[in-house]
Design a protein that fits this description.
Elements: H1 2-20, H2 23-35, E1 45-49, E2 53-55, E3 58-67, E4 73-75, E5 80-84, E6 94-97, E7 105-107, E8 112-120, E9 132-139, E10 147-154, E11 160-163
Parallel strand pairs: 6-11
Antiparallel strand pairs: 1-3, 2-3, 3-8, 4-7, 5-9, 8-11, 9-10
Length: about 170
């Protein structure tokens, strides 16, 4: 009889430990993670730049990342950028993230997410000239591989491009 009561006490203790340590929360987190779309990887995406809108000394454009795969995936955060000149050399590129909280964007096949880009075209400080890019390397959030697209733009302020989070 003592063995049965010790076994019952051990079972109750184990249940209490599981409850105190968040057994229910872990189960909920796991089921939520299972239903979220997996992260988009570079190979699933196609990049493009929309129309470049001129302004007084500045330019704005939307960068689009399109899910070209047959599976739904998600993006969260900001892209990385590197400008390339006509000879294929990297230009100084200073990406400045907008102070906006990013949100997860779920992309069904064929759907796109956009990130707003903004840059200046007037020389600042001691700049004598502003370099002109021919191509743009785009690194999707949480990736190390990149996409490369045509991007003919003059970017001043030491190569600064302001980037909004993907939406």
């Amino acid at each position: 009889m003592k063995a049965d009561s010790r076994l019952a006490a051990a079972a109750v203790t184990a249940m209490l430990l599981l409850a105190v340590n968040g057994w229910g929360a872990e189960a909920h987190a796991t089921s939520s993670a299972e239903t979220a779309a997996p992260r988009c990887v570079t190979g699933q995406l196609r990049a493009s730049i929309g129309r470049i809108d001129p302004g007084a000394g500045q330019r704005n454009a939307d960068l689009s990342l399109t899910n070209r795969s047959a599976r739904t995936c998600s993006l969260y955060g900001f892209v990385g950028l590197i400008m390339i000149d006509g000879r294929g050399d990297a230009l100084r590129t200073r990406v400045r993230r907008d102070r906006v909280t990013p949100h997860r964007v779920t992309l069904n096949p064929g759907r796109s997410a956009q990130a707003g880009l903004h840059w200046g075209v007037i020389q600042t400080g001691g700049e004598k000239t502003c370099p002109t890019a021919a191509r743009l390397m785009i690194i999707p959030p949480d990736e190390s591989a990149h996409l490369e697209i045509p991007f003919t733009a003059t970017v001043c302020d030491d190569g600064r491009i302001d980037v909004a989070p993907l939406r």
